[in-house]
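Database export, one record per block. Field names are fixed; values are copied verbatim from the stored entry.
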Amino acid sequence: MHITLNTGRKIALVRLNQRGTYHGVLAGRPTPETDASHTDELRTEADALASSIGPSVLLVPEVLPIEKTACVGEFQSDALSKPDSEPYSSLVIAWFQKDFAPPIAEFALIQIRALDWDVLARDWNW
């Protein structure tokens, strides 16, 4: 899957990990506290993947309680992120959406397209 950012940069989804947000929850209704817990858990998953790739970004959920599918995607661009760097860059992006992807939910695509890749992504120069 390819996405064109608002800046014109093209990025590609190269890995997508998904799970049910509430997988393993036995009972109860979502609360602000449980939403925060699930959000923290997704951030931890994204950071774990990003540890070998570069930084991670957590998109703002569309609605609360959060959606039932947690997604962590690795995106790459073959255009330079920073001048005089390697020819590829990566960024891990995490979000919640209603159903398993693809497709990526429109609200997430809007946020992804608006990301400042040049600031957030990590070049492959390590």
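Remark 1: The mean pLDDT is 84.
Remark 2: The chain is about 25% helix and 30% strand.
End of record.
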